[in-house]
């Protein structure tokens, strides 16, 4: 009588595997034996609600502190006329930075996948890729900064007092703020949606549209120019994440954009009264400049990545060869030991 040899983990263990069982691109990293449509939906909903809770607590505390210190008048607060203060900027940036651990915790809770797999398909943050990519894109954003300052020389002043504090906060915390938005939108939301579909193209498309929609709504824009810019920004960064197999280059582009926007357009001009004004008429064709810079720097990154060839897909580890079990192998009379 023969006994079949079973290869691989038992079916029960396979259902518990938190990693994909076949090669997948970044948007489908949560397409695992554990994946169900309900898990992805609940994870995304929990993320949105958790972010709203964290941001409400931190930003509410900052506004309360500013009112207590006399930096914000109660009448202005009641009419939602807020200026950017150091306390509020720290609260806003920390709220977004909190998306990094929040995304990792929710991914582990719903899919059992360790937080390190949120960085990239390699399971780590590829600092070398980030550094080499920075050499490609920073000239474009330096040109954007120079153009901005050149065409607004009469408003540029040497920052002093509060604006020095704001500038320091921007430099120190904006990279974490930008990274948090990427880990939440291009990371957790995109992958949560990607877990619903077997087709890589459908997963990429739905993940990009859903994360882009949430990203745009989170910025509270009411101006058509800003709505178009935020959604296009999200789509471009989703494609960069898919093309590079991780969040590193998306974080780089997002950080460069935000540093230039806050540093030049707001702080050096010493005008923080319109930072939170994103209603109709608050923007215009001027958003085309950062959009063009984003597209040019992304195109340069795309060409560079085609030569550098960063790992774009997760590849499951090959299971170890099973040991032969004598009880499962038929031994014929010709194979019996003599004696």
TrEMBL record:
Keyword Protease: yes
MF terms (GO), sorted A to Z: metallopeptidase activity
Keywords assigned by UniProt, alphabetized: Hydrolase, Membrane, Metalloprotease, Protease, Transmembrane, Transmembrane helix
Transmembrane segments: 41-65, 85-106, 127-151, 163-180, 201-219, 225-242, 249-267, 287-305
InterPro entries, A to Z: Rce1/LyrA-like_dom (IPR003675)
Pfam families, sorted: Rce1-like (PF02517)
Keyword hit for Heme: no
Lineage top rank: taxon: Bacteria
Domain CAAX prenyl protease 2/Lysostaphin resistance protein A-like, first and last residues per copy: 166-260
Name of the featured protein: CPBP family intramembrane metalloprotease
